[in-house]
Amino acid sequence: MSQTAGVTKRAVDPSLLPPRWTRVLRSAVLFIVGLVITFTATFHEQLGFDLSVVAAALGVIGVVHLVEAVFRRGRSGIPIATALGLLSLLAATLLVILGNELAFVVVIAAWALASALLEFLGSTILPGSRQDSTLVGAAGLLLALTVLLSRGDLVAVIGFFGAYAVIAGVFLGIAAFDTRRATASEDVAQGTAVNA
After folding, report:
1. What is the side-by-side strand order in the sheet with 194-195?
2. Taxonomically, which superkingdom (predicted)?
3. Phi/psi at 19 (nearest 5 deg)?
4. pLDDT of residue 178 exceeding 60
5. Smallest Cα–Cα separation from 154: which of 83, 77, 79, 102?
6. Is residue 9 one of the residues assigned to a domain?
7. Mean pLDDT across 73-100
């Protein structure tokens, strides 16, 4: 980002962006998980239901990240997408294997913290590649904190996970269809900069 005569200019390298369909898919998965959690509130007293919903969500999120890594082959950003995918799959596997209340809380908090740090790392190492990662990382940190603070109340823990899923899903969906980003990408490809 540069500033000349009070005008801010952004340059987005289109080769750094993940494919739009992977961003839309990730957004849809998160949003649907958030809605499932919201509209199944009567089942949240059952640990098995909560484990299955969160494990399925983390598993699908992990697969989406790995698919993104495969489609980014030969371009930058593969290590972050791969790490996010493997982390989510590991968390889903641990939830299924361990299957108790303490593991549920610890795995969600650890996944949220580690994925937030990876999102922040991705935005730092490759600026312009994961513009949405700062907000998603902040939401992950907030999720980790709220889960740890409410660890004794499983209904609150699943509720916070659902809130994270809705917030991140909506934000990622908006960002996937952001026309300013598409315009900036086209302008960078033509060798010009765009006013923000």
Report:
1. 2-4, 7-10, 194-195
2. Bacteria
3. -55, 145
4. yes
5. 102
6. no
7. 88
Residue 7 lies in a domain: no
User: Residue 129 above 70 pLDDT?
Assistant: no
Tally of structural domains, the chain: 1
Task: List pLDDT tens digits, range 149-170.
Answer: 998 888 899 999 999 999 999 9
Task: Considering only residues 31 and 45, tell me which one the structure prediction assigns the higher pLDDT.
Answer: 31
Instruction: Please indicate, yes or no, if residue 101 is contained in any of the structural domains.
Output: yes
Range of 3-7, 34-38, 124-128 with top mean pLDDT: 34-38
| Three-state SS sequence of the chain | CEEECCEEEECCCHHHCCCHHHHHHHHHHHHHHHHHHHCCHHHCCCHHHHHHHHHHHHHHHHHHHHHHHHHCCCCCCHHHHHHHHHHHHHHHHHHHHHCCHHHHHHHHHHHHHHHHHHHHHHHHHCCCCCCCHHHHHHHHHHHHHHHHHCCCCHHHHHHHHHHHHHHHHHHHHHHHCCHHHHHHHHHHHHCCCEEC
- Share above pLDDT 90 across residues of the chain, in percent, rounded to a whole number: 48
Chain position carrying tokens 């609150």:
156
**CA-to-CA dists, residue 87 to 52, 107, 190, angstroms:** 17, 11, 37
Distance CA 99, CA 22 (A): 30
Q: Is residue 83 part of a domain?
A: yes
